[in-house]
Amino acid sequence: MKRKAISFYSKFHCIGSKCPSNCCQNWVIRIDDETHKHMMREAFPKNLKYRIFTVNEAGGFHHIRTIAGKCPYLRAGLCSFQWNHRMDLMPQICQVYPRRVVSYGSEAEISLELSCIHAAELFLETEGRLTYEEVEDDTIIMWEQGNQDPSFLTFLQESRERMLDYLWEDSHGSLVERQEALYDYVLSIHRFIVRDQIENAAQVKCKPRDKGAGETFFYPISFLNQILLQDVSFAESSKKNPTLHHLIDLYIKHAGKLYEDEAEEVFKIWYQEMITAYPKLEDTYLKYFSYVLQQIYTESYEDYHVLRKMLEALWFVDVWKLLDTVSYQVEGKAQNKTKELDPGNQSDSLVDEELSDSYSTNWADTSEEAKRLAAVERGFRHRLRLHDIFLERARQEILS
């Protein structure tokens, strides 16, 4: 099988106990059937089996029951199975993560999950457009796209490159203007695909919209606000994803009280302040959008739903931008010793003194940005039920 890996893939090596957010805690650690059989054959005490192995009734799969949120096999920041050279007892997802291997029949694409902070750091440190390069790699394939339509796969790969070529052309306007053009492009080919007219879809070109109002986010702030305040489990995130919990807490305190009709303008000004202070962030968000498209767009090979993948990619970028914008207003500006509020000439400051005083590192450091990105990836990309809620909202409010 031909395998292609994303261009910074070879730089990744697990840093083990040095990792600031160990992946052996606060996750549902699924046990694949083969590994579960190996575990059951081991001479574990009966009561230990009962305590550690359980079945997720909703998903119908075995997983490791965590203790205080941590895998019971975690020792000094490393897996006991690794220490004891018993990789046959280590669940496949633990062996593979954060590597992401997706097969499409005779070929596979390998990338890295940015919910891993170290992978997120490598992504942020790698400049420019990323590419897939052929590699020799034997990482376990965790996701197989079940389809036997190689011509459609070729179409998807060519379509993806066409979008990335357009996205990375500076003359095509702001990030949102480029996103709007790519959304329109995918919407057009989606309409041909559902009518089984792939040959017509292949003729569609990316082209800019007529100049609009110059939006800062692709989705309306009111739409993103509903998801953050109504659909994300804020209480649950306090233990499972403390960085995301902190970011949403900032959002609730400092942006959740904005009126709908003023939120768009306020966020436009806040975002511009952040980009003025840290101009490279706009390029970072563009690179992230590009990377997400590289990862998920061809996954529509199985269900032909290219529009869903585009809607999700746009959503992930907007959520990160939104939470970064509020974080900058509260913490980034505090570090820059700017205590002034915002746009609306209000008298009270956005800066939360207790939070900003305890926030000692540089807000724009790669390590800090990686924590925020990894938290968003973990809280949104890895919450598949949240995807369904998002898509239902998008059908009602965006596509209608």
Describe the structure in your own words:
By secondary structure, the protein is of the alpha+beta class. Among the domains are: 24-96, no CATH class; 221-397, no CATH class. Helices cover 53% and strands 9% of the residues. The protein is built from 18 helices and ten strands. Helix 10 (234-240) packs antiparallel against helix 11, helix 11 crosses helix 15 and helix 11 (242-254) crosses helix 17 (366-381). The longest helix has 30 residues, at 306-335. The chain is globular.
Q: What's this entry about, in short?
A:
This protein is α+β, with helices and mostly antiparallel strands. The chain has helices spanning 33-41, 46-52, 80-83, 92-96, 117-125, 150-167, 175-193, 198-201, 221-231, 234-240, 242-254, 260-277, 280-296, 300-303, 306-335, 353-358, 366-381, 384-397, and strands at residues 2-6, 29-30, 53-56, 61-64, 74-75, 78-79, 99-104, 107-112, 132-135, 143-144.
How much helicity do the residues have?
40-55%
Quickly give the structural class. alpha+beta
Which series of helices and strands comes N to C?
A: EEHHEEEEHHEEHEEHHHHHHHHHHHHH
Number of strands: 10
- What do the pLDDT scores average to? 87
Number of helices: 18
Low-confidence stretches: 338-349, 351-360
